[in-house]
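[step 3/7] fold_predict: job queued, chain A
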Amino acid sequence: MNQTFRTFRGFEQLRLLEESLSPSLEDYLEMIFRKTRYEETMRNTDLAEELNVSVASATKNVQRLSCLGFIIYEPYGKLKLTKLGEATGQFLYNRHEIIERFFQVLGSLESGFVETEMIEHYLSQSTVERLELLTHFLEKYHQEWINFSAE
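[step 4/7] structure written:
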């Protein structure tokens, strides 16, 4: 088990080389997915408002997502997810929900959302799957867990 140590920034740079989506782009895609689950499309200005960013920033990132094949974007038009965007958005949405549920089970109600937003981009798919199993277990045996931790 030969491991190469790096700084946090070093690991972050390696991760970004391996992935086409930065954490910021993941947030944009997740929000587009969230908002278009029940409506077919949304506008760039709505996205900027939802993410509390400028319209210019939203436009820049929407163009990136479009170039990567996640969305269909026409200037001043509506945003629409491609099949790839829909599948990836579903994964990002599920990942967020699993992590947030985990923090809720732990009792981190006040900071759970913020912590979810901060760490969700750094967990592998297999870690998220294991976290989902653990969360389901803790939810199922929540009362016994509460009693055990109170002792």
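[step 5/7] annotate
The CA atoms of residues 92 and 105 lie 20 Å apart.
The chain has two domains: 19-86, 93-150.
exit 0
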